[in-house]
Amino acid sequence: MISEKMEKAFNDQINAELYSEYLxxxxxxxxxxxxxxxxxxxxxxxxxxxxxxxxxxxxxxxARGGRVILKAIDAPExxxxxxxxxxxxxxxxxxxxxxxINGLADVADxxxxxxxxxxxxxxxxxxxxxxxxxGGVLATLKLIGNDSQGLLALDKELAARVFNPPVIG
Length: 169
Ligand code: OFO
Known about the structure:
The chain has helices at 4-34, 37-63, 83-110, 114-144, 148-159. The protein is an all-alpha fold.
């Protein structure tokens, strides 16, 4: 059975993952307005990944005999100055999520919940990949600057990304 403290930490993180889903959905809407369909595709995959991250924890809390309590999801921003500004925010956001996941692992440590710690390892590794992939797009956007041909080439590249449903845990 999961401890109360661990259960609360997971419930908070489920909310954070659903906020991430909402944030990427808002970014997807922004890229729709720019007609950059590759960026739209990339965001759509982020949306699905974040949903899967939330559901992984949702199922885990239940499997451990805990109770999922859903809370209100904050409204995300709706407008950005440029694709570069979007990716700057994403990198900051994912670094914040990494800190939250590490905080969850700290709670697992504190309450000596080894099962939760093992489960959280998947998320810890996932954050390394998230930061790397976002950092890659951000670096390319910085190189592109104001070159619209470069932006269209990147858009084409991002259109090729496919969603692989994550196997969590
Ligand atoms: Fe973007 O990461 Fe969830 O956990």
